[in-house]
Design brief:
The chain is α/β, with parallel strands linked by helices. About 40% of the residues lie in helices and about 15% in strands. It has helices spanning about 5, 20-30, 65-75, 90-95, 95-115, 150-170, 190-200, 220-235, 255-265, 290-295, 305-320; strands at about 10-15, 35-40, 55-60, 80, 120-125, 175-180, 180, 205-210, 215, 220, 245, 255, 275. Strand 1, helix 2 (about 20-30) and strand 2 (about 35-40) form a beta-alpha-beta unit. Helix 5 (about 95-115) runs parallel beside helix 6 (about 150-170) and helix 7 (about 190-200) packs parallel to helix 9 (about 255-265). Mean pLDDT is about 95; it is low at about 325-330.
Length: about 325
């Protein structure tokens, strides 16, 4: 990360209190950027002092006039569009809010950017889920976008909308497609990693709805933040405008094996309960990052194991402050 690059730059981040957004905001605050963050409900109290150093604006990602005024009034130069509804079961139960947030929210942000002068770089966070389900793995950026369920469709659509704006209006847009993020800062405790750590700390039984054999590319979130920032820094080269980039550790692992890493790390004597329920989710999904390595000279900052260690430490501190004691699996 080039700290001098960001000093004094006006940056707009949607979804700044999400897992990825929190870490991007934290890194850029440390680099001296002037940051405006759009939040839907406000900043959670558990976050550190990072958000006391940014301009927090409450609003809906689909409110075009709000987004436009934020961009213009704050003389925004760089946009990180991260806001999304990211939970597949929620999307399956309530597809319309997911479509509005992920699809409409994307075209609203990009249309507002199109009508604002001075914006020199826009990074749209898509997802490996935009590829849908294909037989040929790992996914490269040449794979078709083939979402077939509400969440994956929403990511495929948002991804294509970003491409349409870039190609049609020659806008400075690039797209990221990252693996499954894990790391400190994920406040949706019902998600896999926070719930696994909490269960392991308390000696509770973690319930896995699937058969545990779904394969994913788990990617430590600080590396995701640094990769996204690197991409924005690289956009001085106009030839990468319109490009999409995969980011992950390229180490696919089954969900049950990933969970057991945390259980073993914390020392829990209980093992997860596997329900083996059928799920409308992608069975296997993992990425090739060769393009990012070649075009951006990208390499991860943290190892997979370092990410695990840092994640456990973050949640131990978080749960201790929240009244959750570490019972060492008792």
């Amino acid at each position: 990360m080039k700290k001098d690059f960001w000093k004094g730059r006006n940056v707009f981040i949607t979804g700044g209190t999400g897992l990825l957004g929190y870490w991007i905001t934290k890194y850029l605050v440390g680099a001296g950027a002037q940051i405006t963050v759009l939040v839907h409900r406000g900043v959670p109290e558990v976050f550190d002092e990072t958000f006391s150093k940014v301009n927090v604006v409450k609003g809906d990602i689909t409110d075009y006039e709000k987004i436009l005024s934020v961009l213009r009034n704050n003389k925004i130069e760089t946009v990180f569009h991260l806001a999304a509804q990211t939970i597949s079961p929620i999307a399956n139960k309530n597809p319309i809010p997911t479509f509005k947030t992920n699809i409409e929210g994307t075209w609203v942000v990009l249309e507002a950017c199109r009508n604002t002068q001075g914006i020199g770089r826009i990074v749209v966070a898509s997802s490996d889920k935009a590829y849908g389900e294909e037989e040929v793995l790992p996914f490269t950026e040449k794979a078709r976008l083939n979402g077939i369920r509400p969440y994956t469709v929403s990511k495929s659509c948002a991804d294509l909308i970003a491409t349409a704006y870039q190609k049609t209006y020659d806008m400075p847009i690039c797209i990221t497609r990252c693996g499954n993020f894990y790391g400190g800062g994920d406040l949706l405790i019902e998600r896999l990693v926070p719930s696994a750590i909490k269960a392991a700390m308390n000696g509770e039984e973690l319930v896995i709805r699937s058969d545990g054999k779904f394969v994913r590319d788990f990617f430590y979130v600080e590396d995701g933040a640094l990769a996204t920032i690197l991409l924005a820094e690289s956009m001085d080269k106009k030839e990468i405008w319109g490009e999409d980039f995969n980011f992950s550790y390229e180490k696919p692992i089954a969900v049950i094996d990933f969970v057991n890493i945390f259980f073993n790390k914390i020392g829990s004597v209980k093992k997860p309960k596997v329900l083996n329920e059928p799920l409308n989710e992608i069975r296997e999904q993992y990425l090739s990052c060769e393009k990012a390595r070649k075009m951006l000279l990208w390499t991860p900052t943290f190892s997979f194991e370092e990410g695990i260690e840092k994640t456990v430490l973050w949640y131990k501190d978080f749960f201790a402050k929240s009244g959750v004691s570490d019972k060492k699996g008792a």
